[in-house]
Amino acid sequence: xxxxxxxxxxxxxxxxxxxxxxxxxxxxxxxxxxxxxxxxxxxxxxxxxxxxxxxxxxxxxxxxxxxxxxxxxxxxxxxxxxxxxxxxxxxxxxxxxxxxxxxxxxxxxxxxxxxxxxxxxxxxxxxxxxxxxxxxxxxxxxxxxxxxxxxxxxxxxxxxxxxxxxxxxxxxxxxxxxxxxxxxxxxxxxxxxxxxxxxxxxxxxxxxxxxxxxxxxxxxxxxxxxxxxxxxxxxxxxxxxxxxxxxxxxxxxxxxxxxxxxxxxxxxxxxxxxxxxxxxxxxxxxxxxxxxxxxxxxxxxxxxxxxxxxxxxxxxxxxxxxxxxxxxxxxxxxxxxxxxxxxxxxxxxxxxxxxxxxxxxxxxxxxxxxxxxxxxxxxxxxxxxxxxxxxxxxxxxxxxxxxxxxxxxxxxxxx
DNA sequence: TCTGGGGTCCTAGGACCC
DNA sequence: TCTGGGGTCCTAGGACCC
Length: 415
Known about the structure:
Layout: E1 7-12, H1 15-23, E2 32-35, E3 39-42, H2 44-47, H3 57-63, E4 68-70, H4 74-88, E5 95-99, E6 102-106, H5 111-114, H6 117-132, E7 136-141, H7 144-154, E8 159-161, H8 167-172, H9 184-192, H10 198-202, H11 206-213, H12 215-225, E9 241-252, H13 255-275, E10 278-289, E11 294-305, H14 308-324, E12 331-344, H15 366-385, H16 405-411
Parallel strand pairs: 2-4, 7-8
Antiparallel strand pairs: 1-6, 1-7, 2-3, 5-6, 9-12, 10-11, 10-12
Helix pairs in contact: 4-6, 11-12, 13-14
The structure holds a DNA duplex.
């Protein structure tokens, strides 16, 4: 007998802010924000004033004069996020972690052990509250997409179950932007067609959606609105790219700005690759100008890179090419490096003999091997003495960063 | 709202091969 | 010589998500 699909979607509420309020009772019931120059997370009390994550701190203070900023305790976020998502694992091994504070769980095979999915969802909420002290919302439905919408509807600190057969009624009056894949652009295009609710979306022919939104998005939405969602819960994702970026304010597009920034970014990206014995064949850079318009340039190499200096050089050439195509842009506001086409890096380079015909653009060349050897020595020292102990430290980037590195790490995917 | 950082996926055109 | 069709890879841009 087939097991009825039963998917839980669990989502911790205003996660960072809730942790701060948990750890410091004086903050409970008050509008708080994690961050400073930029809001990384806001409590529900702050959200009521319109404070949102990503918002400039200055603007957030203007909206909410009593807003209280806290610097953030990132190690605690990791510990509590892991603990909360870990509780799902007590009910099923089929847990798909989406981010530090969010996961799907397929509990269809566990009902004989723990009872109905709704009972499991209640137990998860009870235990997260009792054992960790945190609010969490859960959605329960037959598909991932529906479970996710249900948890959004359940927020804050609630539970919404969508019983089989009631899907259409549940979705009918909900706004289209609750659907996965409907952002500001799709929402506006749908609004132009007179489609604002999921019920209206479901009544729109698939070909019409595909014409307006593109084949993939349109087709997907049509399927989802009809409650067809083939996606399975996947316990392990392999990262397909690794990147890093730095916002720069408005800086002149000169070598003095570009070189050290790219070296710092290349160091972050390449060190992560090496730590997992991986390397990538495609290097992409992104240059954002003062007006926030942006361009990308990429190159696919014959051999994968993971040496910091090689990556930095390739990125520099790409940035120069991008700037050459936009000679009128004199100020840049962001630089980014990303590496994709990732491969297992068996590190054969270390065994290669030094060659005279040295092409440093080829990571497998003698220079590439020497660089990798030097990088490994740096990696080893950092492992022992910390990241700041050695390396491309002269890079500094002015010392004051908009976002601390520990926060960046929370967003990194496992390679 | 003048926007922080890490990601995924899709589209469309062009190069190149069979 | 010209024409047709299918497949794969690369590049640039963009929408979207947490």
